[in-house]
Design brief:
It is found in: Cell membrane. Helix content is about 45%, strand content about 20%. It is an alpha+beta fold.
Length: about 800
């Protein structure tokens, strides 16, 4: 009995190495095993035994060319501040162990910051320290683990793959063979004693064999690969019964024409694969549409401030930006497109891209990548790339903001696993029965069972339903990051609202000034400084101050989150913020912004918050949730809030960003599923910590990658509708599961009884997927009309 390698599972042929009471087929597999255990990554083998990839010791591929500047710039996604992001295509990725290992590379090599696998596209994105690790060394490092990256012009171009061309070719071959085989099988169906037909039937049958062979060995190739990978890892996936049916029909057909017993089932086999591939093409197009519809236009409700050479400002849609346009970026705003710095003191925080909070200073003429966040005064930038070509379009799915997988994927996988085992058991029983009743019919019965039971519709249910839900929510200004967020929304039982800018109007406040007269010179400076902040109070105060709006240079800008900021404008130092920030005392628990110039206190702007409309009705509809209010302001409006929210659970004031994050953690430690609603500025940590972070965007210049949802501020009174619609989405998914299973139960029952032919089974198989799509479309539309009257 041959032994198999503990690491890769391949038979041990030439070399047998014993190590740590295990056997390996080569030094490469042993080395990988040692490295994994050295770094406490032995769990790799617990996911799927013998699932490793055998490193090719004969592979002498050199990757030195990757270090050439032109090639490097072509291959990498992002390069700045000692951090580089690169996406490699690795075709050998095939199971959960591969994903786990490739996403644990930073544990093995400290020069790697993080890595993220896209299983469907067989790619891994890696962030690494480029001042310590060369790109060529990174590629060699992966190759030594058996995951050799494929690098060519196609992968370097990073073009979006809308549909696999090879799948279309396979479908075309199967369609051609199916049409012609049906025509050539006509003599077999007609029958009779025609002499000419009798003399040429062998020619027709051989032609049918020739037509069917490329269909079996090429068009069905993906099914063989999927089944083989599953069996190799001791997993019976959904393609195993399909492969058994194909092999059985092909073998039986060859036997019949070789013994002159009959014409075989070549036409049925070609038709089977044609309709299966048609269904697969339909399914793949569905997945692609769900993936590629989710670009910046769908998710980011972002406008930008465009400026002309005379300093005139105009807010335009991000999608309308063109190369050569000049834009304005304020403090704590995300750079929306790849740009060149024209004017301003830039300190770029690339933590949303690299995961590392380090400021990179920039000077005029330097390139700034999309996705970086400005920390400092206003910048003037010149656009050098269109939005869809900038790195921002990839930010939403990066590792730093990825949440853990949740229930429905696990349910789908479990159902598919047990579903296949049950189907194979039924097939075996049916084969035994029909072999005794009608041996010839047994082949048709078995093939029909295996074909009709393919759970394509089952696999399609969740992503297609959630995709529709995401589009409907997006049309109603509730921009959801991904499908898993919808599931998490449905499980929320505790809501945490930030007060300022979330349940209050960010641009509407009753403001009164108390203090000494402020000169026109100082007012212009203060207004210009306020323009640099995204805090709701600063925005309100900017609109309130009656002074000419001049674009004045800001120097030495410093902001303390949740407290205030200071900077020099035209030679004078200003401090704007809370009472403690300016060294003053707040009276009567008021909400106020204090202003100081140099060492002289000028005065304070006292705010009376204006709450959003229909909040009382909203909180009545949220009785089933635990409602909490957090605020960085004082408790001056506590009684008003209690009147407005009689079912409030907790209210906390004078909360710093750290306090808000810790409050979220407290609720989660009590097993609550928490959704945090904040303005996305001082609430970034709490938004990221919560199970669902909902960033409220009144001013669409603000952008918060650490949130799961971006919600238009005007839609807050309708929050209960979004939550209910998310719960409806789960119900729809469960109903589609039920429809898929019901279809299979009915279909398999008739197949076992011998009343369904393999060809008919292949035809109705994609119909089940279409029925799921139709049901999902109608049901999501119907439920949406209950909550949202206007769908644009």
């Amino acid at each position: 009995m041959s032994e198999n390698c503990f690491h890769c599972g391949q038979p041990i042929e030439n070399e047998r190495i014993e190590f740590d009471e295990k056997v390996f087929c080569c030094n490469g597999c042993q080395s990988v095993y040692e490295i994994l255990n050295l770094h406490n990554l032995g769990n790799f083998y617990e996911f799927n035994k013998s699932s490793g990839i055998r490193p090719n010791s004969d592979d002498t591929t050199q990757f030195d060319y990757l270090d050439a500047e032109d090639v490097f710039n072509k291959v990498v996604d992002f390069h700045e501040g000692g951090t580089t992001l690169v996406t490699f295509k690795i075709p050998v990725i095939h199971c959960s162990s591969c994903i786990w290992l490739l996403e644990s590379l930073n544990t093995i090599n400290p020069k790697i910051k993080y890595s993220q696998v896209n299983f469907t596209r067989k790619t891994v994105q890696i962030a690494y320290k480029s001042d310590e690790l060369k790109l060529s060394e990174l590629a060699k490092f992966l190759t030594n683990f058996g995951y050799k990256p494929v690098i060519n012009l196609e992968t370097a171009d990073k073009k979006k793959e809308t549909l696999d061309k090879s799948l279309l070719i396979k479908l075309a071959i199967a369609g051609f063979a199916f049409g012609n085989s049906m025509f050539l099988s006509f003599p077999e169906y007609v029958g009779g004693n025609d002499v000419w037909m009798e003399n040429y039937k062998h020619l027709f049958r051989i032609t049918l064999l020739i037509l069917a062979t490329p269909v079996v060995f090429y068009s069905a190739l993906d099914y063989y690969k999927s089944a083989w990978y599953g069996l190799k890892n001791k997993i019976i996936n959904i393609d195993v019964p399909i492969v058994i049916g194909i092999i059985m029909l092909y073998g039986r057909s060859i036997y019949e024409i070789a013994t002159d017993y009959g014409g075989g089932y070549f036409d049925t086999l070609c038709g089977l694969l044609f309709f299966m591939l048609l269904g697969k093409t339909f399914q793949k197009r569905t997945y692609n549409s769900l993936s590629y519809d989710r670009d910046y236009k769908s998710f980011y409700p972002i406008a930008v401030t465009k400026i002309d050479f005379n300093g005139k400002q105009d807010n335009i849609l991000l999608s309308d930006l063109k190369v050569g346009d000049r834009i304005m970026v304020r403090n704590q705003e995300i750079i929306p497109v790849d740009s060149i710095l024209i004017k301003g003191e830039a300190n770029i925080d690339n933590s949303f891209i690299t995961g590392e909070a380090a400021l990179v200073p920039k000077k005029a003429g330097d390139k700034i990548f999309a996705g970086g966040k400005q920390s400092g005064p206003i910048l003037e930038l010149e656009v050098i790339k269109n939005v869809d070509q900038s790195y921002l379009t990839q930010l939403w799915n990066k590792e730093a903001f990825k949440k853990t997988e949740t229930g429905l994927d696990t349910i789908t996988n479990k159902i598919s696993k047990y579903f296949t085992i049950v189907i194979l058991t039924i097939t075996a029983i049916a084969a035994i029965y029909w072999s005794q009743e009608n041996f010839e019919k047994m082949f048709q019965v078995v093939a029909a069972i295996l074909i009709i039971a393919c759970p394509c519709a089952l696999a399609l249910s969740a992503p297609f339903t959630f995709g529709h839900i995401m589009r409907i929510l997006g049309r109603n200004k509730f921009y959801v990051k991904d499908t898993l967020t919808i599931e998490r929304l449905s499980k929320i039982d505790s809501l945490v609202f930030d007060k300022t800018g979330t349940i209050t109007e960010s641009k509407k406040s009753n403001i009164n000034y108390l203090g000494q007269n402020i000169s026109e010179f100082d007012l212009k400076n203060i207004k210009s400084l306020l323009k640099n902040s995204n805090h709701p109070l600063s925005k309100s105060l900017y609109d309130y101050i009656d002074a000419e709006d001049e674009y004045l240079p800001i120097e030495n800008f410093v902001e303390i989150s949740g407290k205030g900021y200071s900077a020099s404008v035209r030679g004078k130092l200003y401090k704007i913020g809370s009472a403690s920030f300016t060294g003053q005392k707040s009276e009567n628990l008021e909400t106020a912004v204090f202003v100081q110039v140099g060492d002289e206190f000028l005065g304070k702007y006292i705010f009376k918050n204006e709450y959003r409309k229909d909040l009382i009705t909203l909180f009545k509809h949220l009785k089933s949730y635990q409602v909490n209010i957090l605020s960085g302001d004082n408790a001056s409006e506590e009684q008003q809030l209690k009147t407005m929210i009689p079912n409030v659970s907790q209210m906390r004031f004078n909360q710093s960003p750290e306090d808000k994050l810790e409050f979220i953690q407290e609720l989660q430690n009590q097993n609550h599923k928490v959704a945090m609603l904040g303005d996305g500025l001082n609430d970034a940590g709490a938004l990221k910590q919560s199970d669902v972070g909902i960033a409220i965007a009144d001013d669409t210049n603000a952008f918060t990658p650490s949130s799961d949802v971006i919600m238009d501020g005007s839609k807050i009174p309708e929050l209960d509708k979004y939550l209910k619609f998310s719960k409806d989405a789960i119900s729809i998914v469960k109903l589609t599961f039920a429809i898929s299973l019901f279809y299979n139960v009915i279909g398999v029952t008739f197949a076992v009884m011998g009343k369904v032919s393999p060809l008919f089974a292949a035809i109705i198989m994609p119909i089940s997927s279409i029925s799921v799509v139709a049901f999902t479309t109608l049901s999501t539309w119907y439920r949406s009309t209950k909550y949202f009257k206007l769908l644009k």
